[in-house]
Sequence to fold (87 residues):
Amino acid sequence: MNTSILTHMAAAVIPLIIILIAYLIYRQFQVSKIRTEYWSRQGSQALNEIGFWDLEKMPEPPNIYTEKDSLFTALQTIALVQDLGLL
Fold:
């Protein structure tokens, strides 16, 4: 009786273990591939390909706070105009 329970449990658990091991191996392969591709883009040759050295100056970063404030002001104006019944 106990052996039949153990064999049924083994039949259920062993495929799960095999799938888990296969997934971990596949995931490790993906990570190593992503790492290799990342570092291949970090050299001076990659910077030459994108034309980094030809830039006169670094581009300005986007001013997120000003854009956020402008959007908020526009939404407030639209809400006020709607409340006054002008739309």
